[in-house]
Amino acid sequence: MQQDMGFAHFLGQADGLGQFLLVVLAVMSVATWYLIVGKSIAQWRMRRRARAFLAEFWNATDMAEVAKHIDRQGVGDPFSHLTHHGLRAAEQYRNRSSYRLVEAGSADEFLTRALRRAMEQDTARLEYGLTVLASVASSAPFVGLFGTVWGIYHALLNIGMSGQGSLGQVAGPIGEALIMTALGLAVAIPAVLAYNAFARANRLLLAELDGFAHDLFAFMSTGIRAEGRNALPQTLARAA
After folding, report:
1. How many structural domains does the chain have?
2. pLDDT band at 47; cut points 50, 70, 90
3. For residue 203, is it within any domain?
4. Residues 137/186, Cβ–Cβ less than 8 Å
5. What's the chain's Rg over C-alpha atoms?
6. What CA–CA distance (Å, rounded) separates 72 from 65?
7. Distances (CA, A) of 141 to 132, 180, 195
8. What CA–CA distances, in Å, run from 158 to 120, 139, 153, 176, 216?
9. pLDDT tens digits for 152-206?
10. Where are the membrane-spanning stretches (predicted)?
11. Which residues of 2-29 are buried (b: 16+ CB within 10 A; e: fewer)?
12. Residue-range definition of the domain harbouring residue 90
């Protein structure tokens, strides 16, 4: 009598290693979809706040108005975060003691270091979770393939012990073993697509942020030179 074949039968026949591989794939899938949903919502909110902040920034009359906006709304996107660091750097430079290495250099150099640190923090924040997606995308097919090989091995052993080697007896167990390969691909494909989408979105955002950093630095440093040697700490200190 021919046995019913399918995923339920495969689960019932899987040994300890097969069940462990299924758990690994399930964990990978849950982590992938958690990152996809979480990062998608976070990026949507961040871009909405960034558009609002940039509109407020370029329509502001001076940096004091920008600082008040940041105090009211908080830092919710890379652009406001970068500006906040610039304002804090101006305040810190005004109150510097000249005894610490971090406070060494001119006002321009001090501002450059502050903006660079802010961009590094934003880059690390944007890249959160991408390593997990890349790891799942590259390893899930091989986990599934290993499960398939292991399942075929046991299927062939059982067929050999039963002494029945007809096509009908072989096709069912081997077909069930191939389910592991399909599961591995089902886990890997969303991770690959999500990684590429997030990496491209981050690359575009960081390019825009880099341009804004240059504009912000040029705006501040031009104000310095126009008003004199000590204009940066005094002007931005009023804004901060």
Report:
1. 1
2. very high
3. yes
4. no
5. 29
6. 11
7. 15, 9, 16
8. 57, 29, 9, 14, 71
9. 877 777 667 666 655 555 666 676 678 888 899 999 999 999 999 999 999 999 9
10. 20-42, 126-153, 173-195
11. eeeeeeeebeebbeeebeebbebbeebb
12. 10-140+182-239
